[in-house]
Structures are given as structure tokens and as C-alpha cells.
Amino acid sequence: MVKDSPKPPKPSNPSVSIWAAQCGKCLKWRMISTQEEFEEIRSKFIEEPFFCNKKPNVSCDDPADIEYDSSRTWVIDKPNTPKTPNGFKRNMTLRRDYSKMDIYYVTPTGKRVRSSTELATFLQQNPEFSDLSVSDFSFTSPKVMDDTIPSSDVLANSNKKAATSNTK
Ligand SMILES: [Zn+2]
């Protein structure tokens, strides 16, 4: 999803390029094609775990779409993070030192919002979004998986990221 966005003038921090969910039965990882679909799965992951057969023509007998390994850096999102409200976009960028992912929302008016406080102010100032509340948003960072952080000599080449909805 990152590849299609217009590039900002200065190099941006790495963002998510692949979405994946882990099957609750066979534990294989399945790629999820869009952020929206991924957020839908993630938003109710505890009540409705993900299984291979949620993808068309896929079963647990098929090989995994993607392996959890250090060929890319993995970040694991918290299950049941709310689905991004219509018109908003939730973006995540990884700090260059791999310490943390920073979350921000882009509002339908094009404003970047980086915290619950900023968001509360935005909602107050924009009564057209009065049906939304701060709890429809989450600024909780996904966990950057230490064992998939590249060693320093491959840092320059590490712009591939995956987000997942594993429960760990
Ligand atoms: Zn499976």
C-alpha cells in the first residue's frame, strides 16, 4: 500500500508494505491484500480468530504465504485494535533505529493527528464527526519484533515491513 502513495520530498521512515494474519489452527501466515481487510480481521481478532479458509480457495493444507523470519522486519499489532473510521487513514512509520512504530491518523480534512489529545481536540472542533469518539481510534504501537530487526550491515536494505494480527 505504501508503493502507491505519492512520495514526500524527503525520504520517509519505513512503513508497512505487507499485511498478514496467522491462522489459529495451522499457525501459517496468510497475506492480507489490503489494509482495510487487515483492519477488519484485527478489529475482532479475539472473538473471531483468523483461519486459512477465510481466504478464498485457501485451506490449512496450502503452504504459508509468508514465513515469519528476519528477511523482513515484523511488527505485531494488538488484537482488537478498532477499525479505522471511514474517511480516516491510520498510518504507521518505523523509527530508523527500529525502537518503535509511530502511529498517526490522517483525517478526512487532511490533518495529521498523532495522539488521543490531538484527536479529542480535532473531534471537538469538527462537529461533523460527532458520531466518533476517541475510543474509535488507537495510538497503541504494534510491537516491533526484536528477532526480525536486521543487523546494522543490512539496515539500508530493510524497507520491507509486515504487520500482523498475531495475539503474541
Ligand atoms: Zn490454517
From TrEMBL:
Bias kind Polar residues: ranges: 149-168
Major localization listed first in the record, in broad terms: nucleus
InterPro entries named among the record's database cross-references: DNA-bd_dom_sf, Methyl_CpG_DNA-bd, Znf_CW
Keywords assigned by UniProt, alphabetized: DNA-binding, Metal-binding, Nucleus, Transcription, Transcription regulation, Zinc, Zinc-finger
Localisation: Nucleus
Residue ranges of domain CW-type in the record: 13-68
Record has Membrane as a keyword: no
Listed GO MF terms: DNA binding; zinc ion binding
Domain MBD: 74-144
One Pfam family hit: zf-CW
GO cellular component, one term: nucleus
Keyword check for Zinc: yes
SMART domains assigned to the protein according to its UniProt record, in alphabetical order: MBD (SM00391)
Region (Disordered): 148-168
PANTHER family: METHYL-CPG BINDING PROTEIN, MBD, METHYL-CPG-BINDING DOMAIN-CONTAINING PROTEIN 1-RELATED
The name this protein goes by in its record: Methyl-cpg-binding domain-containing protein 4
